[in-house]
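Hi all, long-time lurker, first post. I run a small reading group and we've been trying to get comfortable going from sequence to structure in the token notation. Rather than ask abstract questions, I figured I'd post a concrete chain and ask someone more experienced to write out its structure so we can walk through it together at our next meeting. Sequence below, copied exactly:
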Amino acid sequence: MSRVANPVLDLPFDVRPDPDEFVQAAMEWHFAPDTGSPFWLERAKTLDFDPRSDIKSHEDLKLFPNIVNELRDVRVHDLIPRGYGDDARIVGVFESGGTTGAPKRVVCLRDWLDRMVAWSNANLDAHGFPRGAQWLGITPTGPHIVGQLFSSSATTHGSVGHPVDLDPRWVKRLIAEGKPEQANAYAEHVIDQAAFVLRTQDIGVMTITPPLLERLARRDELVDLVNQKVRAIRWGGTQLDPDSRDFYRAEVFPDVTLYGHYGSTMILGIAGQRLGLTDDDPCVFDAFSPYITYSVINPETKRVVSYGERGQVVMNHVSKALLLPNNLERDLAIRVEPLPGQVGDAVADIAPVARFEDEAVIEGVY
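-- Answer (accepted) --
Happy to help. Here is the structure in token form:
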């Protein structure tokens, strides 16, 4: 039997809750014995504070340790809050990319996915993405969440999705083993599949990673097809440097909307490119605050850097479905002031760290 949550946890996606009230309600939900998940109820015994009484604001989330590495082998059902009872509709179990060490897992519930996709769709509307278009997705279909986000966006904002599967782990392995020619052949194989869809279907929106967009842009036939058919491109998964972004917008796809997103499987979501950026602005990403929030820190001192300075990204996810605070990501970014009314930082100019958890970071095709 499900429990009734504080209504602030179930507001419509476009109604922004008071961030302090929201965080306090989330702490009560995730740490009360009858509503919290088995994982967090057990983990709370090891904390040197009481989340229900000591976490009063978004800033207080810093008290939590980074528990993300514990999600490598935890039972997934232990991550589901008990308050859902029999109403916990699992959309999927998703994993980090496994870039460094064994993958980490999180569970995505239907109410969160619907909220995230509705927010993302509103961003696409604001950026001029056509409603009802057919989508082409050159992204992993699993176990990364981006595949689920693609299919959900394609069928709610668009009409139908045409996925071309991508296995970034295989590419990273090939690169790590010193087999760049095989990695290159695989990437070209992926573009060949996308080319067939572009030739035969009425594609209006394309989702793609920057390394694969670069490969696609090398083929004149595909550039012509995109310019003839596609009205908007959503890119994400790795960085797109400012010079390349300007080149695509001005020279390669001049009449196509180019929109970026930045996210992570571990926070079950994405941040959207800020509306109204000029050609001279960096690509700024705003998170779905207060559910997903970022901070940018000096990795040595763990202190937040000043606006305009570069640091390492820390992500928080706080919702009815999931609690994952203080996740240190393998990305560097410039800290940017958030939009009015939002908590946490906006970020720009994303790039991977060279090493993470004592292992070299390999980007590959994603």
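A couple of things your group might point at:
The two ends are 41 Å apart (CA to CA).
The chain has a mean pLDDT of 93.
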